[in-house]
Amino acid sequence: MPIYEYVCADCGEEFTKLQKMGGEAAVCPKCGSGNVARKISACAIGGASGGTGGSGRGGG
Ligand SMILES: [Zn+2]
Fold first, then answer.
1. Distance between Cα 24 and ligand 1 center (Å)
2. Residue 14 β-bridge partners
3. E strands, the chain, where?
4. C-beta separation of 21 from 13 below 8 A
5. Ligand 1 center to residue 22 CA distance, Å?
6. Please, are residues 27 and 33 in contact by the beta-carbon 8 Å criterion?
7. N or C: which end of the chain has fewer CB within 10 A?
């Protein structure tokens, strides 16, 4: 599941929260304020670079 970053507008605390289906409003875990804004974060899934199996030889 995707993780969204939030930043509190009151204390400036940054935290992450898992976005669930029909989730509840995010609140600051530090001060408990609901005045938080979601940050735009590019969450990349995976990262394994593709590689051809077998022995790789350079053309020559
Ligand atoms: Zn806060």
1. 17
2. 7
3. 3-8, 14-18, 36-39
4. no
5. 23
6. yes
7. C
34 Cα to the center of ligand 1, angstroms: 8
- Give pLDDT, residue 24: 78
* Whole-number Cα distances in Å, 51 to 12, 20, 44: 43, 34, 19
Q: Give the pLDDT confidence score for residue 21 in this predicted structure.
A: 72
| Residue 28, Cβ density class (10 Å: 0-12 exposed, 13-18 middle, ≥19 buried) | buried
pLDDT tens sequence across 24-53: 789 999 999 999 999 865 555 555 555 555
Alpha-carbon separation of residue 59 from 21, 34, 49, 50, 56 (angstroms): 51, 60, 21, 19, 9
Ligand 1 centroid distance, CA of 48 (Å): 36
Tokens, residue 59: 């053309």
